[in-house]
Amino acid sequence: MQLLDRKQALAIAPFWRLGFRPFFAAGAMFALLAVALWAAALHGLTNPAVPGGMLAWHRHEMPFGFGLAIIAGFLLTAMQTWTGSPGLSGRPLIALFGLWLAARLVWFFPVPLALLVVLQLAFIGLFIAQMARQLIAARQRNNYPILLVLSLLALCQSFTLAGLVHGDDSLQRRGALAALWLIAVMLSLIGGRVIPFFTQRGLGRVEAFAAHPRLDRLLLVCGVLVAALFASGHNLQARSWLAVPFIVLSVLHGLRLWRWHLRGVWHVPLLWSLHLGYAWLLVASLGMAAWHLGWLTQPSLANHALAVGAMGGLILAMMARVSLGHTGRALQPPRAMSWAFGLLNLGALIRVSAGSSGLWLAALCWAVAFALFAWHYAPMLYRARVDGHPG
Length: 391
Prior knowledge:
The chain has one domain (14-382): Cytochrome c oxidase-like, subunit I domain (Cytochrome C Oxidase, Chain A, Up-down Bundle), CATH 1.20.210.10. It is built from 13 helices and no strands. The protein is mainly alpha-helical and 391 residues long. 47% of the residues are buried. Helices cover 75% and strands 0% of the residues.
């Protein structure tokens, strides 16, 4: 039976054997193109006719187009390890990826708005169904919080799309920002598992980092609470008492970083990129606390610290590490990836410190970072594993 399964797996084209391959490759290309198009639209160089205008498109596509694609690629691949059952591959994976791609393209075609909405919600719905089927069958209760966060993300997407349909800018904004902070929760959940493990392995440390389940649960609860406050509209106005959950988040993220830190981290690009990306979660939380306390003039800077620094930085670092491991390669990224990691973080710094005046330079840094990943990693993702494993 095992031999038969191996033969069946090897009969599938390498690109469609596991979820990380198509979603990482396409997600990186989409990150490059979407930010370039957004920057061009802001500077009046182009104005595509999309439903609700380019702001509505940008709000929706960064969390639900880019962010969700990489989350899907990572989780659909991790399912194989977590549950011991084969990950989504072959035709079912092609169909799910095709749905994601159609949902990205439909914005630019004159189709009924209802079709756009159906395609967006169909992708996340089928993705959650696949995750739930495997996790529940394997009784993986420790991973049920991931299903919770994904379900809340689907709810936020429904808010955002309802705002688009009804022309309600506030509802769009609430849904998109709540989704962004739920992605922060997902980054915290996944990062809490893989960053200490990758750090331990990357530095040859024998003993594992101590687990802190209470801290992990508190981060989950506090992160979901913050997202709920955005969805309800409370976080859209500065209120001093709302600084409290963000201060708590800052402390918890800071504790994690302190516990994970080892001196050798800063000599290994695959590690310092992860730690630096996670540090942007701390910066974003502190920024929101500062805004609620009246120390920061606008929350956009904190939200972009989260979107560009944390989401972009952690996604780029995670893709670089996971792609090497799951294609059977040594954990030594191409030298250009150090530049990619540096440019991504430089772009985040420019975006939050220079505001809109530095948007072009920040967008350029982001685009070059993801272009470097796509150039160096696409051949790995298209080809079979170098160790002969069918994954």
